[in-house]
Amino acid sequence: MTSSSVPGVPEPRLTSLSHGGGCGCKIAPGVLAELLKGSLPSRRHADLLVGTDTSDDAAVYRLNDTQAVVATTDFFMPIVDDPFDFGRIAATNALSDIYAMGGRPLFALAIVGMPINTLSQQTIRDILRGGETVCEQAGIPIAGGHSIDSVEPIYGLAVTGVVDPKNVKRNSSARSGDLLILGKPLGVGIFSAAFKKGLLDAAGYRAMIDTTTQLNLPGMELSSLAGVHAMTDVTGFGLLGHLLEMCRGSGLAARITAAHLPLLPGLQALAHSGIVTGASARNWQAYGKDVSLASYLDAPLQAVLTDPQTSGGLLVACDPVELPAVQAAFERLGFAQAAVIGRMNEGAPQVRVE
């Protein structure tokens, strides 16, 4: 075990220092909505194409007819104990918001809060190195940042990107009849809960790391497809929460087929054994009234649908005619489990799961 910054004191597990992990740390949807009540409307700024109005993934500000800035920030506490993996996951997650808007990242700034007297300098360096490695894969530099001495370890990025205003993909522009494609398997929150309890085997851990460190690169390619009408990424509010944001923004209903959902290997067994996150229950409490589940679907599936995803997959709404091009983009970039999970329909903003 690595020594902490205090001589003779063993260094604790990263996950033991945080009250939550990954995107499961997000403030519950209902609480967040209350906190944001009374915020000044972004409509006052004509060139702010995307602000807070529809709970989208990043802000978009138009510079001219062909260029707009995409900006986001994302950070959280450890979901794993390996510092290098933690850094990689946090950086991948932050970059995802740019890709979800159809943007191309340009550079990032690091957000660092570390318990300096608890963690060794080597551990902190490894976290930073993990983030740098992912940004190198994305082809961008970490050009600076800010750090504080914090009680809990926190790491993430503020990312700036660019997009053609005509190609911005909002979460609020889906159309009736659009197919819904999910790019990554669900289950990261449940896997992380199992990991904390010592119940996740080596294969499960590797599957979790592989999915949470896979950059959502298809977003850049999908932005140029006219038949792709809306995109978002599935993170802390779970599949249902982020799909409901799409429904509310678009003024539509959604229907998804449970049997078509891509899942991490072994997820169903973990869910049926009662391993869930506290964030899953908070998510359901916040938006469950707008969701109907077929009578034959059980509580473990509800936990999967509300499971907070860290660095989750893209959720794409596209015209059925565009589906082959969308599937080809996912396949070409290594997203083997990308799947059609449902459809957008006319109706009040709600989700039906069958």
Quick structural overview:
This protein is α+β, with helices and mostly antiparallel strands. The protein has 11 helices and 13 strands.
Radius of gyration: 20 Å
Rough outline: globular
* Cα distance spanning the termini: 48 Å
User: Could you say which structural class the secondary elements and strand pairing correspond to?
Assistant: alpha+beta
**What string gives the helices and strands in order?**
HEEEHEHEEEHHHEHEHHEHEHEE
Please mark out the parts with pLDDT under 50 across 5 or more consecutive residues, or reply none: none
- Report the sheet-strand fraction: 15-25%
Strand order of the largest sheet: 8-11-7-12-9-13-10
Report the count of strand segments: 13
Helix content, binned percent: 25-40%
Report mean pLDDT, rounded to a whole number.
92
**Count of DSSP H/I helices:** 11
The biggest sheet, with number of strands, parallel, antiparallel or mixed sense and barrel status, is:
7 strands, mixed
Notes on the structure:
This protein is α+β, with helices and mostly antiparallel strands. The chain contains 11 helices and 13 strands. Strands 8-11-7-12-9-13-10 form a 7-stranded mixed beta sheet, with helices on both faces. A 6-stranded mixed beta sheet has the order 1-2-3-6-4-5, with helices on one face. Helix 3 links the parallel strand 4 (104-114) and strand 5 (142-149). Helix 4 (188-196) packs across helix 5 and helix 7 runs parallel beside helix 9. The radius of gyration is 20 Å and the shape is globular. The termini are far apart. The mean pLDDT is 92.
